[in-house]
Design brief:
The protein has about 350 residues and is of the alpha+beta class. It is built from ten helices and 16 strands. The chain folds into two domains: about 160 residues, 2-Layer Sandwich (Alpha-Beta Plaits); about 160 residues, Nucleotide cyclase, GGDEF domain (Alpha-Beta Plaits), CATH 3.30.70.
Length: about 350
């Protein structure tokens, strides 16, 4: 098998083992998917490729050491800012190792001494820090990054210690600019609670959450919070937000047909664009308030899109129809309605 010189990134969640041990298998899988999703997104956005899931993290490879460090910094930044998954599970943080070496890459695995170095070095990394080897430091050379020496680390099974550096934190911002926020609101939540047992209602809501996760799979979206019967999801691309809504509509249509014994899922949604503030437990700020105001004005089983989002659309602009809603003070609110197809469609 041919070898290639690549930069390897290992990102591993801290404290996830204890969280997984406290819940059943289904909830554990949901926790790990939510908790590790920011890592996968950061890898994809920085031209990397995830090659192996470690159980509570990922091995990824990059052609560029600089892109790997940008990814590492973004991953660390996320877990410093947000301490909970959308479902409310606590996350202690993340440990990240970056190393440049000759490796053998298979479709779903990565082999070589450079991989072993990452795996063994990761155990020594403090929470929410990024360590890199001298090999990566040398490849990056003079750059915008700031490093400080950690020292020579002796790893098990190696005759000589390796020189390690720490990547300094870049200036952190708790604001994400130009974000698209999607909020969905499930209908008949109260009525379902009157006819279902607490366990059945819980499972019904968990399935609702999982349909959102499936709807954004393959898209540049991130579930930020589940609040009872509502979900808050952010996107960088407004077309991805529309595609996620189309996917969700298709998924719930199929689910309702396949499970006639359960209450049907029906929802309304609102999409708005602006700057969002990240908090340890989710998202806050003016954009959140604006989106909820639009959601409150939106009729049942309808989807409203604000004008700022409509102006940014490319692929799905023709799907929208201009409309006016009436605010509580009687003033008209100009927005757009998303026309949902009669035939279901799921696209990634």
């Amino acid at each position: 098998m041919p070898t290639r010189t690549l930069t390897i990134l290992l990102a591993d969640l801290v404290g996830s083992t204890q969280q997984v041990a406290q819940v059943n298998t289904v909830r554990a899988a949901e926790f790990l998917e939510d908790a590790t999703h920011p890592i996968r997104i950061a890898v994809e956005e920085n031209a990397g490729r995830v090659v192996k899931f470690t159980g509570d993290g990922f091995f990824a490879v990059f052609e560029s050491a600089r892109e790997a460090l940008l990814c590492a910094d973004k991953v660390r930044d996320h877990y410093i800012r947000q301490h909970y998954t959308p479902s409310g599970f606590a996350i202690d943080g993340v440990r990240v190792v970056v190393n440049t070496a000759d490796v053998m890459v298979e479709e779903d695995d990565i082999l070589g001494d450079g991989v072993v170095v990452c795996a063994r070095l990761e155990k020594s990394v403090p929470t929410n820090q990024v360590w890199l080897t001298a090999a990566t430091r040398e490849v990056v050379g003079v750059s915008d990054f700031v490093f400080h020496p950690v020292g020579d680390i002796q790893l098990r099974g190696r005759p000589q210690p390796i020189k390690v550096f720490a990547l300094e934190n870049t200036e952190q911002s708790y604001i994400e600019y130009g974000t698209v926020l999607l909020v969905t609101d499930l209908h008949q939540y109260i009525q379902a609670g009157e006819t279902m047992s607490p366990l059945e209602l819980n499972d019904w809501l968990l399935t609702w959450a999982n349909l959102h996760r499936e709807a954004i799979r393959g898209l540049r979206g991130q579930v930020r919070q589940f609040v009872a019967d509502m979900a808050l999801i952010t996107f960088s691309d407004p077309d991805d937000a529309i595609q996620a809504l189309l996917n969700l509509h298709s998924l719930i249509t199929i689910h309702n047909r396949q499970h006639p014994q359960l209450p049907d899922y029906h929802f309304k949604a609102a999409v708005a664009s602006g700057d969002i503030i990240l908090s340890p437990t989710g998202v806050v700020g003016r954009l959140v308030n604006q989106t909820f105001e639009l959601l409150n004005l939106t009729p049942r089983q309808s989807i409203s899109i604000d004008a700022a989002t409509q102006r940014r659309l490319q692929a799905y602009a023709e799907r929208l129809t201009a409309t006016k809603l009436t605010a509580r003070n009687g003033n008209p609110v100009e927005c757009y309605r998303l026309e949902l197809p009669e035939q279901v469609e799921v696209k990634e």
